[in-house]
Amino acid sequence: MSNFSIEAEGLGKRYFLGEDLTLARLAQGLLPWRRGDGPAELWALRDASFTVKAGEAVGIIGRNGAGKSTLLKLLSRITAPTEGHARLRGRISTLLEVGTGFHPDLSGRDNIFLSGTILGMSYAEVKAKFDEIVAFAEVEKFVDTPVKRYSSGMYVRLAFSVAAFLEPEILIVDEVLAVGDASFQRKSLGRLNDVSGQDGRTVLFVSHNLQAIRSFCRRALVLESGRIVFDGPTEAAIGRYLQSLPARADLRHAALGDRLARSDGRLRFVDVTALGADGRRTWQFQPGDAVTLVFTIEADTAVPSLTFLVKLSNAEDNRPITTIREVIRPDAIPAGQRGTVTLHFPALPLRPCEVSLYAWLGNAEDTVSYDVIDNNVGLPFLFINSEDGDKYGRQGLVSLDYRLTSQWRTMQRPLDTAAVREQ
Q: What's domain 4-242's architecture?
């Protein structure tokens, strides 16, 4: 018998765009392709073939629209493939959206038993896990409240707890964990490690949080434009994925309305570029690399002075790494001026992680905000990646200079008094 939990061969899913393909319309002959013109079509997934061993944790990464969610829906039998097939061995539990499978008018208690029944669990099996599920989700006070009154955080905690504790052989988790707070995300990843490592169950994990993929999965699939372009070790997969990301951020029109709601727009960021040691544009670096950030600024209206502030944060939990503030123009800047601010780090001592950037422009007294850029603008992360096979060299956030010494000496063994008495 095969030891594979999942075997996919040539999976593909095609959608038609812009047409209501109901049987009634087909019968009426109203579609353009009945007159010889083919309808617009989109292959959300094409020729996906891979296997997953029992007890293996596999990450799935790719840009938005790459086909990740389509693949999971095909494996979960939520939608049927246009071509190819997949074989899954064992009970499967999916967590693709917040509260998937929950009935909003039922209480948390009722939904736990309902979900367990759908998964094929008996009443006794669900009851045996009930207290663990509720405690993990931290909804003890609200377990008899209809889930439609839950916050999104409560919803996702309970949905994840049900999926993780009811012991399916295969667990499929989409980006849904991003809804939870940082504490719950860490706890959830710990639970997934238990599910895969100790309980020997198979997990497919989709996330844009590359640090979570690193810590949880030893293998990952990379999808681009509906096709699997890489299947292998996680670090190599992340490197392949990063190659597809843009090396430049044009901010002239990006989220302008949102930015003007928080600033007056007299002077604005129009471009941000990250440069490597060779001067080439890139957002991908190795630990210890030199990093240069170039911010291009335009003044639509004269301003009396200019302060520049940038904050680097760990994208996983948004904790600041460092903040830099400088008054770069204490004098006035006339309208129509264009300038650059260059921030250079000779060596960034960060270990593999994703770094988010927050940048702000204001007057010298910090009382007026001219412009701000953050995650709402869609600015890329700085990706610090490493090919180091030592897992301890990838743990933590920074690499500190240190000196390690070791000394040894011969031990003075105590006299064996029992042996002396015998003599």
A: 3-Layer(aba) Sandwich (3.40)
